[in-house]
Amino acid sequence: MTGAAALRATHARAALGVTVAAVAIATLLPAPGAAAKAAVLAALVAVLGLPHGAVDHLEGQTLLAPRVGRAWWLVFGALYVAAATVVVAAWLLWPPGLLVGFLLLAAGHFGAEDVAADPAAPRGPLRVLEAGLRGAIPVLGPVLFHPERTGELFAYLLPGSSAAGVQAVLVPLAWGAPVFAGALAAFAVIAWASGRRGTAVEVLALTVAVGVLPPLLAFVVYFCLWHAPRHTLTVAARLSPADARRGLIRFARAAWPLTLVTIAAGTLAWWGLTGAVNAVPAAIATVFVGLAALTVPHVVLAALHARSHIATAT
């Protein structure tokens, strides 16, 4: 097993262990309050989630430097900020459209990344189907398993909407929860039978986590324990294919400046929102609208990288 493969295996075991522990704690202890959940969300997204996208400029350099030379960083910065600004403007002008678009984009991105990291994943239409199913776990799962709690959170992202109004839309969808859970269980059985035992266990663990944990904490478990570290290890392996640890060091050096800038910008945005709403809704809106603003250029870069990789391979 190579150094990169060993790190990926270690990450999978650690993420699984923490996921199981989180579920166990949630079943034994009283649910944390809204302020505590918002604080955990903001802190862990800042520390564990943001860095995985804070190296997008490296991909931007690879794509733009051959075309525009040393001015690549100006072009990259302008395009990145413009894309993020469009997302924030969309939230201000049409919050429901932004929310639906973000959820669909996030599900597609999460599923594609999970499948891409699995060397035993199928090809062709089955790969697309698996990506859709796995990407739906952290996005559709909370809606189906916890429609009332999720409706309350969505209301924070929809200015002028009441929690009761959003819940009235989501609660009727709860009938799909057993269907969704059954589909995931069937997938896990098929994956296990085909020798993909790690994938089967991961899918089952995440399904249980989404079903048991409050939506905010379930998102933290997936995004901060599974998705972001997995992407980090992938990028680190590109930075130093022969030395996984050196790749992580290079990743950290490349990620910390923009991570700090993003945290500072998010803090200012949260402070500005607290003038209009309470601290908890402001924190949740800041995190998720901010993630939406960063997800669009991040996903575009990931797609361009995949396209260039396919072109090179062929």
Can you walk me through this structure?
This protein is an all-alpha fold and 314 residues long. The chain has one domain. 83% of the residues lie in helices and 0% in strands. The protein has 13 helices and no strands. The chain has helices at 3-28, 34-49, 56-68, 72-93, 95-116, 125-145, 147-156, 163-170, 176-193, 197-212, 215-239, 244-273, 279-313. The two termini are 27 Å apart.
Span of the ends, CA to CA: 27 Å
- Biggest β-sheet description: none
For the residues shown, what is the average pLDDT?
93
User: What is the overall silhouette?
Assistant: globular
Question: How many E strands?
Answer: 0
Structural class: mainly alpha
Which H/E pattern describes the elements?
HHHHHHHHHHHHH
> What share of residues is helical?
over 70%
How large, in whole angstroms, is the Cα Rg? 19 Å
Q: What percentage of the residues does DSSP assign to strands (E)?
A: under 5%
Q: Count the helices. How many?
A: 13
Q: What number of structural domains do the residues give?
A: 1
- Poorly predicted segments: none
Protein name: Probable beta-carotene 15,15'-dioxygenase
InterPro entries: Blh_diox
GO molecular function, one term: iron ion binding
Subcellular location: Cell membrane
